[in-house]
Design goal:
heterodimer; A: about 800 residues; alpha+beta; Aldehyde Oxidoreductase, domain 4; Aldehyde Oxidoreductase, domain 3; 3 domains; 22 helices; B: about 200 residues; Alpha-D-Glucose-1,6-Bisphosphate, Chain A, domain 4
Chain lengths: ~800, ~200
Amino acid sequence: MTTHQSNDFVGQRFPRREDQYLLRGEGLYLDDLAEPHNTLHLAFVLSPHAHARILSIDVSEALEVPGVVAVLTGEDFVSLIKPIRPNIEMPTYLYTDRLALALDVVRFVGEQVAVVLAESKYAAHDAIELVQVEYELMPAVVSLEQAISEGSPVVHEHVAGNIAFRGEFASDDFATKHAAGKYRLRERFRHGRVSGSAMEPRGCMAVPIRGEEITFYTSTQIPHIVRTEIAKHVIGCSESALRVVVPEVGGGFGVKAQLYTEELISVALCLKYRRPIKWVQDRREDLLTNTHARDHIYEMEATFDERGVLTSLELELYTNIGAYSSSPFGGTIETTGGARQIVGPYKLPNYAYRCYAVTTNTCASGVYRGVAQPACFMAMEGIMDRIARQLNIDPLEVRLRNIVLPGDMPWVNVLGVRYDTGSYQKCLELARERSGYEDFRRRFPGSRLKDGKYHGIGIGNMVELTGTGAPGWRVRGLQAVSGIDGATIRVEPTGKVSVFVSQANAGQGHFTTFAQIAADHIGVRPEAVTVYEGDTASTPFGTGTFASRSAITGGGAVIQAAEKVSNKIRRLAAHELQVEPNDIVLQDGRARVASDPSRFVDFEKLCLLAYSLGKGALPPTEVYGLEATEYYDPPVVTVANAVHIIEVAIDAIDGRVAIENYYVVHDCGKVINPMIVDGQIHGGIAQGVGEVLMEEIVYDEHGQLINASLLDYLLPTALDVPDLSTLTIDHVETPSIDSLGGFKGVGEGGIIGSVAALTSAIYDALEGIGANVNSVPLRPSHIASLIRAARQSAPDPEATRAKQELTAAH
Amino acid sequence: MELKRVQKVEAPHLRVWEALNDIEILKASIPGCESLERIDDDTLHAAVKIKIGPIAAKFKGVIKFSDLNPPNSYMLAFEGQGGAAGFAKGNARVDLTPEGPNATALSYETSAQVGGKIAQLGSRLIDSAAMKTATEFFENFSRALVKEPVEESGSQPDATQPGISESMASVPVQTPPPSSNRPLLIGIGVVVIAALVWYAFA
């Protein structure tokens, strides 16, 4: 690192500052914060029923537990917290308000019906066992399929047919063009329901200080939104008297980019009792009440020509949004996301969709890494694979024939979304060459069965819509998601640089990457820069960290603020050195004259002027201070792209999938720190592998969630994710021309690409025996039954050979 | 969940019948059974302590009998509340068939639902816990059959048997007259409570 003298820290493998203290176990997470001596602890009584009327709640026994201060029910909160309503403006959108605590009706297992305040967490948890709630059962609607079927019970009386939102789009003269397609295929893809499990569950602590004020510590990705929403919902809470502080966050993944009832309740009770209030959830609550994700059905019909070029696509999309709209993204985020992002890197000329947000008696769904994109690209790549199969063209070749080419850039897709730059052809060709794809096709020209395993190779060719700006959120109807982010940069009297960003780091390395960016633009080393985030008292307003946005939006704001500060430094230096500001170069903490580098002035000296700490005086045209605050509103979206290619071997007996080879080529524009980009991809792949091969939230037909522990909700471990020796990552850099710094997002690409590619690989391995892989998860039991069914129904030569090989092997 | 199971009891048909009429024997045989209470002809209250993996709770249950076809079969409906641990409910059909001079087949067919914490955390464990409980019940029951000869005429225990009279004193059960089939039903009903709870999601 010492070799870097000039302003080129962006792009370097700069070690993450965070790792120093995190790997030593010195990270301070919410539950590590010291509790004030008089803290009250909360525990919630959760509904055991998916849909029921509350007849009575008896708290008398719970109140007798030593240490219990109060037990509150829904009625107590009517005057404390307004119904939670995400601010969505979309035609046809029906609000499904949620109360802080259920009042008359519970609508999912885990909905909170009472809260205990006690002097210790133990007393609170003992007491919730003694709260007696009498329920009258109502018919529950659990699955998407059930909820949209004729005559299904409804979750909310005012939401007819359980459709809380419907969206539609059709390109010009779609019906005629779709009918004119030469070849045609129909497919139904199903993606199951998952939890974006973070290692650290949620928690929060509200501490009253100085009379009326509250400092609210919460494990969130969106401190500014949380603060505004609490002030809007908690009666009597003043936004300026509420400071939201985010401690170290042990994984967010979107699940913590939500406003939760427990946050509102904690602040409301802090106001009511004027005592510190603390709540930390356990794993069961995490799986029952943190927003779930995915759970989509894609009904698709595609037409294409003899070369495999898509000519039209018709989509009917159903997403299960659970019992209530989550906040601030509401129930439309997955619905519009799946329908609008599915176009991907392809030059689809004619497109029509109808999409539906469907309510059920399950936990609310919300944003989780990739949002709808892992599911919609699983479906779109599935269409590509089926076109290839139908026309007997290589699947990678079909993709090449459909992608947006360099000459098409900037490309505006059929929905009007602008792709400013991209490297779809380059990445696909590089992937074909570097992944062993062609070698695999040579090794397996016919049967995929070898040594008792079915072999397959799959492609996830994707774009990632990142760094969505204000217009991008408005177009999706979201009014409470600003889209902008802010940064304040202050060069301190000693010449060191403080950077305050509106973000909240949840493990992405912001303290390193924003320091790299600021260092380049101010002309200091990153070591001279300290980054502050996750504190509404010191950082400017901003949207927060989710949807692959921080590098673009936070990075853009840092660039803007740094430019403003460095311009002032240049002016002060120019005045000192009696040259023009344009002739000043900032480097290594000094302002030099470009035309005569022997003449320079140290930042420290300029800072003394700026803060009136010496005997010199400011130029008369300048004001005191070396500080600037800027807000950056990024483009509508910035489009990153990637290709994942995965080779799998599937055990012909037990259906277990082994990943033999994994290749990724990724283009997130200008790379700030390749090591961090690699880490984002590794993490995304781990979650994608879990999503396809292991994870699924399971509700039974009565709406009981029957795997609310990590023994039953299987997360991938180090033994399940691809060995790094089988993983190759290449970076292609095609800087954005629309976003500042040329950055594109990278937070979600890993999971999007892996879900699509892994599903495609399993399809590729098994299509020869007649198994149609069109849904995830694909646990060994699913795959084994697909193989069994294929063998029974189609005794084709491949299957017969499989049987013979198996017999020979045993 | 649905479950069908036949358990062979090594005792003559009549002997099993009579033992099942003895609420005290049953109470002692059912693992974790704390009380049995007769509410009316068709209704029984029971309290059973349950532990599945991390969950320990006392289930308070109500059983209602129907479709009596003495002494061959009957139906029952069950609903139990375990407080914060959740709930269990369902129904069952029970049959008793002689299988030779010293053996009786007791078959039960249940359909049940559990909810709350017991379903969320215990679903994976219910299979093995159910097996263990059922085995334990039938071991206890068989032992009781050998140890406690039941009077031919009915289930009213002999006051000279200290164990039984002592436990009788603590449970306000009004055992019905010997000619009634109810005691048998109660007995089997309690067996099925255990089955319902334990076998849910098996």
